[in-house]
Amino acid sequence: MSATPVDLSARETLDVLRHVLAPMLAEGAIVRRPRVTAWAERQQVDRQAARVLDTLRDRYDGAPLSVRIGPRRVVLVTTPQDVARILDGSPEPFTPATREKTAALRHFQPSGVLISPPAARRSRRPLNERALASGHRAHPDADQIVAQVARTADEIAAAVDASGGLDAATFTEAWWRLVRTVTLGERAREDHELTDRLTALRRGANWAYFQPVRHRLRAAFREQVAARVAEAEPGTLAAAARAAAEDLARTADGTGYAYDPADQVPHWLFAFDAAGMATLRALAVAAARPAVRERLVDELAAADPVLADAGPGAPVLPYARACVLESVRLWPTTLVILRDATEPTTWGGRTLPAGTGFAVVSGYVHRDAGRIDFADAFTPEAWLDGRADADRALVPFSAGPAECAGRDVVLFTTSHLLARLAGLGLAVDRGEHLADDPLPRTVDHLQLRFRQRERVTPVGGTVST
Ligand code: HEM
Predict the structure, then answer these.
(1) How far apart are the CA of 276 and the centre of ligand 1, in A?
(2) Rounded distance between C-alpha atoms, residue 380 and residue 112, angstroms
(3) Which tens digit of pLDDT belongs to each residue from 446-461?
(4) What is the pLDDT of residue 1?
(5) Ligand 1 centroid to 79 CA: how many Å?
(6) pTM, whole model, 2 decimals?
(7) Domain range holding 213?
């Protein structure tokens, strides 16, 4: 297999632009555009992208694919070794703070760790890791998180009872209440203005450098976040961030790093949106597959006889966690992972200049049938038996030193919500597409609709309602 990047021809470049990159940009990298995501599902745009990339991968024997877009060179990597190289090599010589990402994210989180230069990253990354308890499957505030999840599940159950179903809009409203409460506390629960401001700024971020930053709105949002962080009660992620900031400041080596949690929280709020999408898609699969649904319900029941409501030692739910991981493998919410080389990079027989961009098209590498025998099949087991971890290109949360710092708290929160919602016995509209493998490449979470069918009682039984 060749490791030397190949320059694509004008025709090949056009195919990549048209079928791989343009649909992603159109869907909205930072906040999805509902009309476009509906179109993307109808067209199954990810299937077409995979066809183009399969052809190029086979033609060039897995070599990195170098695309020129004006003055910019972006190299698409498709093999596990190449993916691992750029992610393990972050933040230097492959910085996550790429030109495009910086242009986009500065619209609402100019000091977020993801787009921070190396010196600032050295202080901001530990703050994120500590507050979010990266590397710990259950967050120290797991009990409070589970209590809020249970409350949200009850709220959704009441909406289902009242209307006989659940749509993405109803889910999303309840989801944001949960996100604000877990992140910023009870007083922020109904602060819809905060989320609305963030969404408005994210719309601008979709346009990256092509739209000016809305400075006044960004400042008002930042102030609102800072006020919420300051008042957040113990048990919230913001309070954990405050504690981490104080602790880090005490142990700082006098380099004058700034540890302001309010700089990091905008990313958390933004990224929780993706966690909602992942939960909704996993729920859709569970609703279409009785075996998945029942296993989720049984796992929750076995974990705690009172359905794991708040109490010391809130349990990890490995199967539900694996279902969410599988949801983001099949339908990644970070459509592309980007890195920029900070120095000249020798790759195979070639040296690429500093500033070269590298891209991992997640939806493609996660479902490469040439490598993965469960490519298009819902296989949460792969996250339990080590198969997924052994494949360095399965990176829904990225990997290496700049891996998603929220991975564990996200999986903890979403697994508990998924397990509870599975017990509502929902059927999903158009479920035939999700009931069997192979699963569709593109699923628009915004169009998912569920009907009430039956409540599922633990250990396999069902109760009609
Ligand atoms: C399903 C939900 C999520 C997924 C799939 C996800 C995925 C990712 C990915 C792929 C990256 C790397 C992006 C890049 O390199 O360009 C990332 C970065 C990050 N994520 Fe997440 N994320 C999720 C939710 C969250 C949440 C809810 C939080 C916080 C509560 C969070 C915190 C972070 C942080 C702080 C970074 C930056 C890490 C760094 O640059 O060192 N994420 N995430």
Answers:
(1) 13
(2) 32
(3) 999 999 986 655 554 5
(4) 45
(5) 22
(6) 0.95
(7) 6-43+59-358+392-464
